Amino acid sequence: MPAAALKPKPLPTQSTAKRPVLLDLPYEPVEKRPLPAGRPREWYVSHNRRLKAMRLAIALLDSGVYLPNQARNERIRRAAQTIGVHPPSDTTCHMVRAFMRYSR
Fold it and tell me: Region (Disordered) spans which residues (predicted)?
């Protein structure tokens, strides 16, 4: 018997599943490290905004939202509630759509 026949079939992904795959909640947060000191406050604000937008973009992609025009502010805020982060501002929602646009 070939070795490939013994391997179990992988679970379906969003692209191969017959129905949308439900969003998995993050298993365990990454260990936080302190940010570098001595930068202007604006750098820290934009850095944290980018991290939040990236998390939200990944959550939306996992839930089946692939196009930026499908990600309205309300949908992004529902995803934020699902993954347990504070509701994003309009600026962060815009950044989420930009991440989705440039990931293609």
Answer: 1-20
